[in-house]
Write a structure and sequence with these properties.
The structure is a single chain. This protein is α+β, with helices and mostly antiparallel strands. Among the domains are: 2-125, Alpha-Beta Plaits, CATH 3.30.70; 251-338. It is elongated. A four-stranded antiparallel beta sheet has the order 2-3-1-4, sandwiched between helices. Helices cover 34% and strands 7% of the residues.
Length: 340
Amino acid sequence: MSNTVVGLYRTEEDVRRVVDDLSNHGFSRGEINHHDDVGPNLREWLTDQGVPDHEAEDYVLGVRNGGKLVTLEADDDRAAEAIDIMQRHERGTATARGGMPAGAPSTGAATADDARTGTADMKQDTGRTRQGEEETIEVVEEELDVSKRQVEHGGVHVRTYVTEKPVEKQVQVREENVSVDRRPVDRAVSEAEAQGAFKERSIDMTETSEEVVVDKQARVVEEVVLRKDARERTETVSDTVRRTDVEIEGSDEQYTANRGQYEQHHGEHFATSGRGYDEFEPAYRYGVELAHHPEYAGSTWNDIAPAAREHWEQKNAGTWSEFEPAIRYGYERGPDERRA
């Protein structure tokens, strides 16, 4: 008869390791299913495989809180081996359902409280704290880091090119011409003229003229200046950041047990504030949670107030001064060891 073995793990790496381990021990990968999304029918499918309703609901809650569900169809003679393989991986537990007889033990079954806090079937990762030991839960918070980079968003392209145009200019030029005139003369030759009158002579006269010489000279007649001007503006960047919040078990019981005292304190100190008890209740609850926080054991209110204010203002910006007295009262009404 076939059994459905179910295991819940924290990360994809945990799933990869357990699937590889099952495959190395002869289990077919085709019989191994991986669920990281609840989907509309996960709970019904689990109950169809023989998982009790309350356990199926715990598995669904575990997946909703980020868990990874691994299921395997195994024969009767190999179901115990499959459970052993799936349970020996550090972060997961496994149960077998289906062919097991009614009333069979459900090793590693998750509780509803585990599923609601996102730790269903992952108890091997935390275990029980032994005397003298301590465990630390890291509170992780994202910060928004904004930087700048240069991008091109436009520009100007300037080019030069050469054009030609006709130009006319009038210039006065001089030209010489030689003319020969013969004039009749009737006079006696002087004594001086007689000495050279009968000698041969030649006379040369040169004609000259001016011609236009064209020369061109480049001159700068205009300047085109390219200049970049920078201006600054303020941009608002909006995003979301994540923070790990810690829910302290036991604080609800403390609050419920002392609710009457908190209501009385409200009536004595805040009756004229215009705010009812419902508006102050989160502040009293927050103080009680702080009182049960292991990190603040043995701390006075003045010791923890700066950290408490920072955390409160992240969700209730600008309201610390109004609600601090209620938060402090809730803290100081906590266990004695928290306010020593």
